[in-house]
Amino acid sequence: MGCVNLSGKYWYYGLIALSLVFLVMAIRHRGNWKLFVMQLMIFAVIHPFELVVLLTNGYRYLPGITHTVVDIHIGSFISNLCIVPASAVLLNAYQLSWRYKLGFAVIFTFVDWYFTVLGIYQHFWWKSIYTGLGLLILYTLNDLMWSKISRQRVSQGFRLVSIYLTYFALHTVLAFAVNQGGVVFQFQLESIPLGSVKTMGLISVLYQAVISCVVTLAIGLKIAFRYRVLGALVIVGLNGLLGHFGVFVPLAPVHVQWLLFIPLVSIGLLSLLFKKAHLKYLFP
Fold first, then answer.
1. 272: left (phi over 0), alpha (psi -120 to 50) or beta
2. Nearest to 44 by CA among 180, 215, 198
3. Are 139 and 149 in contact (CB under 8 A)?
4. pLDDT tens digit string along 142-183?
5. Residues 44, 168: contact at Cβ < 8 Å?
6. What is the reported pTM?
7. Can you give the residue ranges of every domain in the chain?
8. 57: which DSSP letter?
């Protein structure tokens, strides 16, 4: 009974702590920061799929951390940025067999079900078995990405995909943090009949995907400097359109071009991380 009565947020805090343990164990064991890059790439793979499930009311996170709609996003980040990618990274670091992958999938299927029993996670059309099956697919994709990123030489296609996924993850996390879950600004469009929360989520992911594509091409291709500058101008122009058509709705005294702060910092973090991981993918 004590476990059942434990506040929901502590279960989610426990997942964060376990994620950190997995990630530290993995990096210390292999001494390879490519594992952290993989953590971010896996999140970027999961995140759009998660958005589809949330938009179609598949399930809802109820961690009880803020007691607002932000809780749904916090729960999503804890699952898809922290614990699920960390388990995949641990499998990579220790080169564990499919027996362990199946074991992780079974454990997470049980956790998925048990969280619904605790009332800190709610199913609608989603079922716990889908979580287990999804993880087996994800672990297969994880094996493929890890085998490629571990090589000294990779194709230009994989290099660009790696830049895109890692940048997308950094941009998404940073945007959520600086926006405080929707306190500073929102994206809204009256023609999307989904409600403010879902509309914000949909437009945010589409915006981040477009910016990620522009950044990936600007810093991942061997092109003249003027074309890299053109990429920056495209981002400025896109922000201007969001402001002009009222899609960007400030809830604090900020201008739409304030959004430029996010890609600038994200590119800086990406450069530092790739340097630490010895990935010579940027600015060829």
1. alpha
2. 215
3. no
4. 999 999 999 989 999 999 999 999 999 999 999 999 998 889
5. yes
6. 0.95
7. 1-150, 153-284
8. T
